[in-house]
Write a structure and sequence with these properties.
Elements: H1 4-10, E1 97-101, E2 105-109, E3 129-132, E4 135-138, E5 152-155, E6 158-162, E7 178-185, E8 188-195, E9 219-222, E10 231-237, E11 249-251, E12 257-259, E13 262-268
Antiparallel strand pairs: 1-2, 3-4, 5-6, 7-8, 9-10, 10-13, 11-13, 12-13
């Protein structure tokens, strides 16, 4: 199937190695940020799936309980899609292909990267997953399609995808260059890996919620001490697990945060 000229004509902004649009294309990136509740500051500015290690033909997209739509196999028997071209993960596509959101749904050579794997091109991942925020995330229709603390979130110009299952305030659960930050949707907090930005205020740096409360990913602008100045403080798991920088201690924050069953506080010196 010759997809290169079609994808290039559509002006796809991410890298699809099978499309041949050039080596300098990059994956669509960005957060799922939305406004936090009143007086809560959102940090930042704004199980693997199975696969064959040497071929893209024999892949499964649901990862055996790792979330996402019921992917079946890229070599599954043909089915009739409800959409004009194909349905996720591979309905309506030829064997060895998957359905991907490339300027509209399109059958492309099936990717080989499993859930959570670092990725660059949108179709690098096995069918049923797409590259989002640097890793392969499951396409979903509701929170029930996701696992753990993941949430099914709408992404501009892309289908809904499951968010990350990471440890807030740390890099655990994120690919290199990303940190687990706090986001809000419908008033309920969830975690999301976002790209690190060294230009943002770091640990224990003065900040002001009157100026947006901007801090680095995984930190929040807060006043932990009565009468003290506002500072960027890192989120940390409770009870204190010793993960705070500079020998700090994890204490309960002014605004309680719980992700799944895990409560979080903020680091203090």
């Amino acid at each position: 199937m010759k997809v290169g000229p079609i994808l290039c004509a559509l002006g796809i902004a991410w890298s699809l190695s099978a499309a041949g649009c050039g080596d300098d294309a990059v994956a669509l990136d960005g957060g799922l940020d939305s406004e936090p509740p009143a007086d809560a500051s959102m940090d930042g500015p704004g199980g693997d799936a199975s696969s064959s290690s040497d071929t893209g033909a024999d892949v499964t997209g649901d990862g055996g309980g790792e979330g996402g739509l019921d992917a079946g196999s890229a070599d599954a028997a043909p089915c009739t899609p409800e959409s004009p071209v194909c349905d996720y993960p591979s309905c309506g596509c030829d064997p060895g292909e998957g359905c991907y959101p490339a300027g509209g749904r399109m059958c492309l050579p099936a990717g080989t990267l499993p859930k959570d794997a670092p990725c660059r091109g949108l179709a690098d991942c096995v069918p049923g997953f797409i590259c989002r925020n640097g890793s392969c995330r499951a396409i979903c229709e509701s929170d029930e399609d996701c696992v753990g603390v993941e949430r099914c979130q709408l992404v501009v110009a892309l289908p809904r995808v499951c968010t990350d299952d990471c440890i807030l305030g740390s890099t655990i659960g994120c690919v290199d260059g990303y940190t687990c930050g706090l986001n809000y949707s419908g008033g309920e907090p969830f975690v999301l890996c976002s790209r690190d930005d060294d230009s943002l205020p770091g640990d224990y740096t003065p900040c002001s919620t009157l100026e947006g409360g901007i801090c680095a990913i995984g930190l929040t602008c807060t006043r932990p001490d009565a009468g003290g100045e506002q500072q960027c403080r890192r989120y940390c798991p409770l009870p204190d697990d010793g993960s705070c920088p500079d020998g700090g201690t994890c204490v309960e924050g002014r605004i309680p945060v719980t992700i799944g069953d895990q409560p979080y506080g903020v680091c203090t010196l």
